[in-house]
Amino acid sequence: MLVRVLLACALALCAALASADDFGVTPPAAPVERWGTLEVALAGPSDGNPFVDVELSAVFRQGARSIAATGFYDGDGHYKIRFMPDAVGQWTYETRSNRPALHGKQGSFTVVQPAPGNHGPVAVRNKFHFGYGDGTPFWQVGTTSYAWIHQGDALQEQTLRTLAGAPFNKIRMAIFPNNDDKAGTLRFPFAGTPPRNWDLERFDVAFWRNLDKRVAQLRALGIEADLILFHPYDKGKWGFDRLPAAANDRYLRYAVARLAAYRNVWWSMANEFDFVTEKRMDDWDHYFQLVQAADPYDHLRSIHNAFRLYNHTKPWVTHVSIQHGAATLDPERAVLYRDVYEKPVVYDEVKYEGDFTRRWGQLTPEEMVLRFWNGAIAGSYVGHGEAYQDPQGMVWLAKGGTLRGKSPARLAFFRKILSDSPLEGLEPIDKWQDHPFAGKHGEYYLGYFNRERPTNWPFVLFKTGLADGMNFRAEVIDTWNMTVTPVPGTFEIKKRDDYTYADKDGRGIALPGRPYMALRIVRVR
Amino acid sequence: MLVRVLLACALALCAALASADDFGVTPPAAPVERWGTLEVALAGPSDGNPFVDVELSAVFRQGARSIAATGFYDGDGHYKIRFMPDAVGQWTYETRSNRPALHGKQGSFTVVQPAPGNHGPVAVRNKFHFGYGDGTPFWQVGTTSYAWIHQGDALQEQTLRTLAGAPFNKIRMAIFPNNDDKAGTLRFPFAGTPPRNWDLERFDVAFWRNLDKRVAQLRALGIEADLILFHPYDKGKWGFDRLPAAANDRYLRYAVARLAAYRNVWWSMANEFDFVTEKRMDDWDHYFQLVQAADPYDHLRSIHNAFRLYNHTKPWVTHVSIQHGAATLDPERAVLYRDVYEKPVVYDEVKYEGDFTRRWGQLTPEEMVLRFWNGAIAGSYVGHGEAYQDPQGMVWLAKGGTLRGKSPARLAFFRKILSDSPLEGLEPIDKWQDHPFAGKHGEYYLGYFNRERPTNWPFVLFKTGLADGMNFRAEVIDTWNMTVTPVPGTFEIKKRDDYTYADKDGRGIALPGRPYMALRIVRVR
Fold first, then answer.
1. What whole-number distance in Å separates Cα of residue A129 and Cα of residue B439?
2. Cα-based angle B429, B432, B435 (whole degrees, multiple of 5)
3. A-interface mutation test, from B347, B359, B429, B432, most A Cβ less than 10 A away
4. CB contacts, 8 Å: A371 with chain B
5. Coil, strand, or helix at residue A40?
6. Four-way CATH pick for B139-419: 3.20.20.80, 3.40.710.10, 1.25.40.10, 3.90.1150.10
7. pLDDT of amino acid A186
8. How many angstroms separate the CA atoms of A239 and A196, rounded?
9. What are B330-357's pLDDT values in tens digits?
10. What pLDDT digit, counting tens, does each position of A267-277 carry?
11. With contact defined as beta carbons under 8 Å apart, do B57 and B69 qualify?
């Protein structure tokens, strides 16, 4: 199975690298895939400051439906409007601008069925879960590499190759550099010269073209790009954590205009928002609202905390992005946020596998994997990170490069188990008591024993959806050694008490007395 | 210590019972205590339907301040306006009414210092905690007896005697009866005849006078009355869970007009609100807003859940009232709601001590007490309940009467430990990791080992507020056997690593290898 995943990824990488230089967009002259990216390119004025002087958008129409998308200036008199069509068939467009050269341009294009691997954008589904546009479940197995696009080109390419062979289908990544990134030959979102001599009314299109390209390459790999719009790791070095309000708004509008038409984009307003010293809570509300209004596709939106939680009940938050060091240590703990927010919960940061001296970066691989399982049993999702010390500072968490940890192989195995689970998502079976099972009542049960070392599990299931005479098969899963061992025979249940059904003959399942064991129990008809 | 508490309670009970028949109110002719209840009594029309026809209020003034309080009809041509003054000195009032006999009545009265035991109303303090009006901390140790005021008079009196000797300073109690309460000689909030022949435009003042009296008696005992305004246990029998909207609003306004001037009142919009089948989420929002607008004193407001949580981030919620079967099983779990809501969290229902067959009513006393400790270490508060089977159905949880469990004595001990804690409230010391300590950085640490049975605790404290050379004394607390054992000598600390300070000589504290042990560590200067 793992080999198959790796092969599929390798093939996807070839496709990604082959299309790297065109930013993964399609001109109207060629058919564009459903949920692909159409790009209307126009020539226009280069005098003055086109970034602020020129307004450009287009209305895209199919039958009675119309969707407005904002364009952007790409330098040298080039203007672009990108669009992600959500339906096959014929579409037309007409541009609008405050400049005659860009106004009233019309065209049409054809949208065709998506190619294999293009499942559409990810959205919230079944309240607590995610699904692609085509109905395929999205089982989030994320990783984090904050500044991988701020490294040299060769290292960025290496990161992509690593991701191609890794189990992750989402990566958290920042648009602004960290304060320890080296200026060198790097480009920055704003025009000007580092460290702080920026023209805040002009963007460096070379930087943004590279970001387009990287997002398109992730898309080709089937990886969602969870774009972190602000973060506190600048600490004033480049000043991007303390821009004037007008510059922040221009930056957000430019990012959305360039990137929203990539189906794999998610918007993360910040990493550790509460550590950003120069912004207040209502600034974050404003950024959410601005991005929501600017994005025609309603991509997923969240914000990631350090110690203080954002109020994720606010309507513009689509899902909950949590950093917490202890919340995924058992499923009953992890489920609490879900109950509060009634939205999907992603534990994007649960400490990292590694050997750092800081306690957030010294999880054993076993402890990293354990958190994914606990999150899943709580009906939520978890993110990976890696922080092994390196003489050159080549740490995955920050710069990308290669993965050295032992958790990714186990997370590939974990993802395979997830992807064989009910399409509706894993739901806690009985969150009222300590009961480490998730699944679908009466059909499917996934249990996880965490650090416990049981030698036997009495076959007892919570009552909902059960009836006397139902039959189940079971498998013992070793989540660390990556084995799935069928239990011989089947189990017929009968009512035991007010709350449970048990095997009618009182049988149980033998377990090996090791930690990190799981059980999968599936109805047989 | 326990004897002293019992004595104080017994004395308070005498006072309570002595003043029982006058509903604990004071006429303007006599001096009224600060935070006592002044009652202006007026004679007025008894024709028509005074409950709905007559509007009555008064403005109470002291210097430049004025507070408006709504009056109510108490039957037989008697009208009353109750007022809780919050400052000593001279006050005046003037009534307003749509009936001439009640309009423009003026008077003055004197407010004197509160008597011992009157600390004022409880409000939120230090974001996560509670305090009385006079600055005394309120360490919530609650209990629950839903329908105690719907039992016979002798049983109500017995319940009060039990409370007088119990450790509880808050009781959750419903205004509407349960469906298994017996009509018999009981009175109901609305006029009419049971089970469902109510005049929804008239109240049964005899019922409300009894409620006034009981609330006043609780006040004399130093017990907050957490009044549950709606609940699902009617199930249509009396119909109070499915009144027309206008009747609900009249009921709420009448309850607030009669009871808000008792300083010990809290408003709980519901018990298990999500089990009330005939109300929608925006009904609950409306009740909150109505009560908030009607109550001149801004008494505490919350709502209690079964499986679905109300959005406690809404601005009219003053504190969080939670039912959860598993959230208080460790402090790291219990702290999560606190982080979300940034308000005091009261785990009002964590299952009950008892021997019921239903799993919510079969906690051992040890498990009941454990939940209070875990809640405290999480910087939150917990509620007690008792559900021992009884041939006559005399269950504390529902009917009151006597307590049979073994937890109350331990909760008296627990409350004593709490009341010796820093006035600011217990704050989690390091919620980022599993670290079962609360207190005040650099000054006071209360640790709790839950079900663990440690034989030694290495003297290691989280860094915040610490410096080399500080000295601490320690006590070993057996929370079940109710002993406090000083550890000989003191501990001098020095920095151990990035996160902790430890005893400079590497010493630890011997523990007896039993469960339910705690540690108290206090700075020595």
1. 38
2. 55
3. B432
4. none
5. strand
6. 3.20.20.80
7. 85
8. 6
9. 999 999 999 999 999 999 999 999 999 9
10. 999 999 999 99
11. yes
> Are the C-beta atoms of A303 and A321 separated by less than 8 Å?
yes
In three-state secondary structure terms, B386 is strand
Q: Does the pLDDT at position A15 exceed 70? A: no
Question: What's the topology of domain A429-524?
Answer: Immunoglobulin-like (2.60.40)
Residue B402: alpha-carbon gap to chain centroid: 20
Q: List residues of chain A with CB under 8 Å from any CB of chain B.
A: 307-309, 311, 313, 324-327, 329-330, 332-333, 336-337, 339-341, 357-359, 431-434, 498-499
State the Cα–Cα distance between residues A89 and A206, nearest whole angstrom.
Answer: 34
Q: Is the preceding peptide bond at B195 cis, omega within 30 degrees of 0? A: yes
Closest by CA to B201, choosing from B149, B241, B254, B239, is B254
Which residues neighbour A497 within 8 Å (Cβ) at sequence distance 6 or greater?
A: none
Element (H, E) at B285: helix B281-294
CB A407 within 8 A of CB A353: yes
Domain ranges of chain B: 2-112, 139-419, 432-524
- Please give the span between the terminal C-alpha atoms of chain A, in angstroms, as a whole number: 27
Superfamily name and number for A2-112:
Immunoglobulins (2.60.40.10)
Helix (H) or strand (E) holding A69: strand A65-73
Residues of chain B found within 8 Å of residue A357, distances taken between Cβ atoms: 498
For A133-419, which CATH class?
A: alpha beta
| Chain B residues with at least one Cβ partner in A under 8 Å | 307-309, 311, 313, 324-327, 329-330, 332-333, 336-337, 339-342, 357-359, 431-434, 498-499
CB A473, CB A486: distance < 8 Å: yes
The answer, yes or no, to whether residue B1 has pLDDT greater than 70, is no
**Taking 90 as the threshold, does the pLDDT of residue A307 lie above it?**
yes
- Taking the C-alpha atoms of residue B172 and residue B96, their distance in angstroms, rounded to an integer, is 34
Please state, in angstroms and rounded to a whole number, the distance separating the CA atoms of residues B414 and B137: 15
Q: Is B432-524 the same fold as B2-112?
A: yes
Tokens found for residue B106: 């003026």
Question: How big is the A-B interface in CB pairs under 8 Å?
Answer: 64
**Burial (0-12, 13-18, 19+ Cβ within 10 Å), B214:** buried
Residue located via tokens 């904050």? A146
What would be the CATH architecture of the domain defined by B432-524? Sandwich (2.60)
